[in-house]
Amino acid sequence: MASSKLKALWNHPAGLKTIHFWGPTFKWGLSIANIADFSKPPENISYPQQIVVAASGLIWSRYGMVITPRNWNLSSVNFAMAGTGFYQLARKLRHDYSSERERSAIDE
Length: 108
Prior knowledge:
By secondary structure, this protein is an all-alpha fold. Helices cover 78% and strands 0% of the residues. The model has no long low-confidence stretch (mean pLDDT 89).
């Protein structure tokens, strides 16, 4: 039973012996790095970098569902990238907006 499932995964068009498996698998490193940056101070977060991470995550997660065969690994890693990118953008925006409000309150 297990060997037949492993054989099916091996012979799948997006299986272990193809770049369609290994490319997205290694891309998980980018999502993990973005998760590790959750502890980074918000003032060190880059708007352009996180916009690119979030946008490319959305685009490529959609692409993973419309290609044949469907590449669930590609879609899931890019969905994770979009999520972490949007979370980092929200942290940055929240920090910048609250800093602005604090500065304007001090100036008054």
